[in-house]
Amino acid sequence: MVPPARQRVGGCYPVYDVAMSQGARKRAESSARGAAADSHGLETELREAGRLLAAGDAPAAAERLRDITARGVLPPYREADARYLLGRALGAVGDRGGMTDEWGLVLRLDAAAASPQPLMPADEFESAAEAALAELPQELLDQLRNVAILVADRPSAEMVAGGIDPRILGLYRGVPMSRRSTSFGAPYADTIYLFRANLERVCATRAALAERIRVTVLHETAHYFGYTERQLRRMGLA
Question: What count of Cα atoms within 13 Å lies in the side-chain half-sphere of residue 149?
Fold first, then answer.
């Protein structure tokens, strides 16, 4: 049955019904244009806050980002971006507690906004990590035998509360080879983490993800051998 508001009159829909539809369409189009403008304005504000942070003006960046997050009407993924930058800004001004509070929220917001369909199946992800390790000379692989390589979606809440970036792609935890001594004691509890959801978040294709996994594996294993971030940037593994 045709709903009452749509009953035909003389073979045509009533004029008032057409006018209502046109009015609703115009309101929807106007709303969509407004949402697009708001989204563009928010992106501009976030870029400006990021520029301030990169320029070393963390206090100004934090002030701007607090204003953005206080509005309370942001899409979850945009709120996560704003709070991530705010956490970085607060860390830069020495407010570690504020930083970890914001980053704890980012961890939850990113999880809520994540796609339910992974970009790469788990077995293919692990194969990409193994292929990266296979690039290393055998003598280095022998030294990595006791290093655990774990895959998780993101850092744990405990890691983030301890100051770990919630969007970090990989992490080495342990004592680098360059800092070990016979008096330090053994065995060493060394672990390399790969954060799958964070890696997928920055990649648009499976090929790009495979390359990012490769770089992250080589980056974290290099930390195990004692390389610094500066050295890794020069090597193209940042």
Answer: 21
CATH fit for domain 15-113, picks 2.30.180.10, 3.30.497.10, 1.25.40.10, 3.40.980.10: 1.25.40.10
Supply the CATH classification number for the domain 122-234: 3.30.2010.20
Is 222:144 a contact under the CB 8 Å cutoff? no
H or E segment to which residue 192 belongs: strand 191-195
| Residue 164 banded pLDDT, cuts 50, 70, 90 | very high
Amino acid 236: pLDDT: 81
Domain coordinates in residue numbering, the chain: 15-113, 122-234
> Following CA atoms 149, 146, 219, 203 in sequence, which dihedral angle do they give, to the nearest 10 degrees?
-10
Cα–Cα distance, 125 to 68 (Å, whole number): 36
Q: Which of 9-18, 26-35, 208-217 is least confident?
A: 9-18
Distances 101 to 45, 166, 171 between C-alpha atoms, Å: 22, 11, 21
Phi, psi of 137 (to 5 degrees): -60, 150
99-129 pLDDT, tens digit per residue, is 999 999 999 999 998 888 999 999 999 999 9
Q: What one-letter code names the amino acid at 90?
A: L
CA–CA separation, 59 vs 233, rounded Å?
28
Q: Are 74 and 82 in contact (CB under 8 A)?
A: yes
pLDDT of residue 11: 35
The per-residue pLDDT for 93 is: 97
